[in-house]
Amino acid sequence: MERTLVLLKPDAVQRHLIGPILTRFEQKGLKLVGLKLRRFPLETIQKHYSDHAAKPFYKNLVSFMTSGPVVALAFDGKDAISVVRTLVGKTNAREAAPGTIRGDFGMSFSNNMVHASDGPEAAAKELALFFAEEGDLVDWEPVDLGWTYNVDEELA
Ligand code: CMP
Fold first, then answer.
1. Which residue's alpha carbon is nearest to atom 1 within ligand 1?
2. Using one digit for the tens of pLDDT, what is the confidence trace for 71-81?
3. 109 lines ligand 1 (CB under 6 A)
4. Which of 34, 117, 139, 156 could bond 122 through an S-S bridge, CB–CB 3.0 to 4.6 Å?
5. Measured in whole angstroms, how far is the alpha carbon of residue 74 from the centre of its chain?
6. Protein residue with its CA nearest to atom 4 in ligand 1
């Protein structure tokens, strides 16, 4: 099992897309283990995007991500990191495939609605940043786990 971080960016919140996007992840079979709506502090967003600090788009990105509320989500699942990134689609929403979240809901490179961790190291760093408090992440067992997976083959 892997755990990954998803952010629903300010454009997703303003466009009333929290529900439709969350539904995609839930219906896929990912287990929601963390959910937070916040205006995250500037320092949190700067740390989150620290790898992009030298990039020309960094300043606009940080300003966009602090311009309104963001929803932080944590999901568990087998291969959750790549499963989530496939659901989200290409960074440029205009080029993202139909059926992906960005492909179905967006038209922009910057206002691309969703951030998803791009690997295990990033996921660990980002989860620690956005779900730092005791009790932020909730462990529970979905009653349909044995229908979502072949437990013996896939979860042993
Ligand atoms: P995200 O997955 O959140 O990771 C970095 C973000 O920077 C990316 O989505 C885009 O929204 C944003 N961004 C804006 N311009 C660029 C660019 N030229 N290259 C990559 N990312 C960009």
1. 115
2. 999 999 999 99
3. yes
4. 117
5. 7
6. 115
